[in-house]
Write a structure and sequence with these properties.
Blueprint: E1 26-29, E2 35-38, E3 43-45, E4 58-60, H1 63-66, H2 70-85, H3 96-112, H4 128-139, H5 143-162, H6 172-184, H7 197-226, H8 235-239, H9 241-250, H10 254-259, H11 265-285, H12 291-295, E5 302-307, E6 310-319, E7 328-334, H13 339-358, H14 401-408, H15 416-425, H16 431-434, H17 447-459, H18 467-483, H19 491-494, H20 497-520, H21 529-539, H22 550-558, E8 565-566, E9 571-572, H23 585-590, E10 595-596, H24 599-616, H25 624-652
Antiparallel strand pairs: 1-2, 3-4, 5-6, 6-7, 8-9, 9-10
Helix pairs in contact: 2-3, 2-5, 4-6, 5-6, 7-11, 7-13, 11-13, 11-14, 11-17, 17-18, 17-20, 20-22, 24-25
Length: 653
């Protein structure tokens, strides 16, 4: 296992130098920070940048592996070296997958433009036949693919300019042709679909039911493997339903088998794998973690912490998405509901170790080498190829998710009401066509859907209209809003940065959408401190540009110059948290300079006044509560009277 307590220091050059690197120039470090690969090496080892189990952890620059001449290989290495150390990146993150993507595309150009006596990269401007082949290839691809190849071409050209290599790279005319192709290509970059309220709730309910049933029998199931009952089943007990059932009854797991329709030894293991897959998805559901991040969870991943006056549940794992220093330990907020799931997964981890020993696989590893979600090597007889950056035993691959879902999760068929909900969420999308959704078919779950859905529901908790989902996510959305949404707090230092960023971006989008609906597109008379100011601005010929240009408005929200949130009476444009205190927020909101009200606010005020009048009868006239309620009622009357006067004046104009 890697020593993750040590900082993975990346050996970038101390200062920018346009001189060509020598063969001893460091390229990659190992887990201890020592130089692992140098520029002159034929294999560059990137194992410290891996974030998931894979067979690929190096770049091959051998003549045998590439079938390129020595000068081309030298320039190929120079391009990747430039990409690692000098190129400007959109994200300040160095991911091995990104490097591999650039490597493969640069390799494509090097191979296509091959010339026996000179470097391919000095021949890019001269080979017209190869250029036409590039245009033919990219002409049938989507915008995102063309963009990736265009990015590799820019990388090649930038390398030549940086190191001042004459005739290196593509000519401007060809670059222009590829860029034009990119503009003409099909744009197919759909955002991850939002899981509808009802289906999200049914998944949680059914998923937690699965683990409740498992945990009722987990002790007996664990003993069944630890005491080597499973490993000593006779051939008849392995195959025969009747014999296997008698054995299960003898060892106290028959009720579990019946509940999960387990009929033989093989179906027993299959069902355990499916339960593990549901656990994997529930973790994604209650945290927003990516697949590779869930795969990096250890047995002690679940923690409780006191932050402020709240106790929150967190999951600690590793990601390579936030750093160019390899994998990094980070934290995700989760729900207390995940605890029984983690408890069950710990038992399944122990069972996996016993089962691997029974299959005579990974027998040299101890239980400490296993992640929380290890991969059950069931019908295959060989060990899984590749390695994981943290655990010696391979993590769950999560194959056949659909089979596990369809057999264990109920009521997830896509209904007209679900389609109506998605249409209401975004009426500009043809959900059925774009996402191939069919009424009556089961929802196809993928782990990344939970990340998108949790962020949306965390920000737009008012959008959760399905009662059971509101209850299931209540505390989690509060914690996410409190800590992921805290611009000035310590969240950046504690929580996984990417989900914090996604949460805050979604929060900005949601604020803008509400502002657009209730302010920009609202033809009502706006009143209240900020509402009156905006209403008067709309009436002037030279009003603020941000009220006329929505792109500018949105930019103001992004820059933190504007804010909006719904309140009980209407809306509030205050940037940051409310700093007003009062007996109730009615008077406070009514007199606040940031308040924005409209016609719907009038009706709410009238209903609030009636409710206060009814409460007034319950208290003695001289009581503090009675007097305060009367103050609230008077404040409402004052605002309503003022609005009535304004409406009369407007109607007379």
């Amino acid at each position: 296992m890697l020593n993750l307590d040590k900082f993975l220091s990346y050996h970038s050059p101390i200062q920018i130098s346009h001189e060509l690197p020598d063969d001893l120039a460091p390229v990659t470090p190992d887990a201890e920070g020592n130089v692992l690969s140098r520029f002159g090496d034929s294999i560059w080892d990137f194992r410290h940048l891996k974030s998931r189990h894979s067979t690929y952890d190096h770049l091959d620059f051998t003549e045998e592996g590439l079938d390129l001449n020595a000068e081309t290989i030298y320039h190929f290495k120079l391009i990747i070296y430039y990409e690692i150390f000098y190129s400007e990146k959109i994200k300040d993150v160095l991911a091995f997958g990104t490097i591999v993507g650039k490597y493969l595309k640069v390799k494509y150009f090097a191979t296509l433009f091959i010339k026996s006596n000179i470097s391919s990269f000095l021949y890019l401007k001269k080979n017209g036949i190869a250029k036409n082949q590039v245009l033919e290839k990219l002409g049938v691809n989507k915008e995102i693919t063309v963009g990736q190849y265009y990015g590799a071409m820019q990388l090649i050209n930038s390398t030549g300019l940086f190191f001042d290599i004459e005739d290196f790279g593509f000519d401007d005319a060809f670059m222009h042709k590829v860029k034009k192709l990119m503009g003409q290509a099909v744009k197919d970059r759909k955002q991850t679909i939002l899981i509808p309220n009802r289906i999200y709730s049914e998944f949680i309910k059914s998923g937690l039911d699965v683990f409740e049933k498992f945990n009722q029998h987990s002790a007996e199931i664990e003993k069944y493997f630890v005491n080597q009952v499973y490993s000593t089943l006779s051939p008849m007990e392995l195959r025969s339903t009747a014999h296997f059932s008698r054995n299960a009854k003898k060892h106290g797991i028959l009720e579990f088998n019946n509940a999960f329709e387990i009929t033989n030894a093989s179906s027993f293991i299959v069902r355990l794998i499916q339960i593990q897959i549901i656990g994997f998805l529930l973790i994604a559901c209650f945290s927003g973690m990516r697949k590779s991040e869930i795969q990096s969870l250890g047995v002690d991943c679940l923690n409780t912490s006191k932050i402020g006056d709240r106790e929150i549940y967190t999951l600690t794992a590793y990601t390579a998405k936030t750093s160019n220093q390899g994998i990094k330990r980070v934290t995700w907020i989760t729900s207390e509901l995940i605890k029984p799931v983690i408890d069950a997964l710990k038992v399944l981890r122990i069972i996996c170790k016993e089962y691997s020993d029974y299959k005579n696989l990974y027998t040299d590893l101890s239980l400490e080498d296993y992640p929380l979600l290890p991969n059950y090597v069931h019908k295959k007889l060989d060990e899984i190829k590749g390695s994981h950056p943290i655990f010696d035993y391979p993590p769950l691959i999560a194959e056949k998710i659909d089979v596990a879902i369809n057999q264990l999760i109920k009521n997830i068929d896509f209904r007209q009401s679900d389609l109506d909900e998605l249409t209401h969420f975004n009426p500009l999308i043809d959900w059925g066509e774009e996402y191939k959704l069919e009424i009556g078919k089961n929802w196809v779950f993928r782990s990344h859907q939970f990340r998108r859905s949790l962020v949306v529901y965390g920000v737009r908790s008012g959008y959760i209209q399905f009662p059971s989902l509101k209850k299931q996510l209540q505390h989690l959305t509060i914690d996410m809003t409190t800590y992921y949404g805290n611009q000035a707090g310590s969240a950046q230092n504690l929580f996984e940065e990417k989900i914090v960023t996604e949460f805050r971006k979604e929060n900005i989008r949601y604020q803008f959408v509400q502002y657009e609906e209730k302010v920009l597109n609202n033809n009502d008379l706006l009143f209240g401190g900020e509402g009156t100011r905006i209403h008067l601005s709309k009436l002037t010929a030279d009003g603020p540009y941000y009220l006329e240009n929505k792109k500018t408005t949105y930019k103001h929200f992004e820059e933190g110059r504007m804010a909006y949130k719904k309140t009980y009476l209407g809306g509030c444009a205050k940037i940051g948290a409310c700093d007003k205190l009062g007996f109730s927020y009615i008077t406070v909101c009514l007199n606040c300079k940031d308040a924005i009200f409209d016609s719907s606010s009038k009706e709410t005020m009238k209903k609030t006044k009636q409710a206060f009048l009814q409460r007034l009868q319950k208290y003695e006239p001289d009581s503090i509560t009675n007097k305060q309620l009367q103050i609230e009622i008077n404040a409402i009357d004052k605002v309503l009277n003022k609005v009535n006067v304004i409406e009369v004046e407007v109607s007379d104009v």
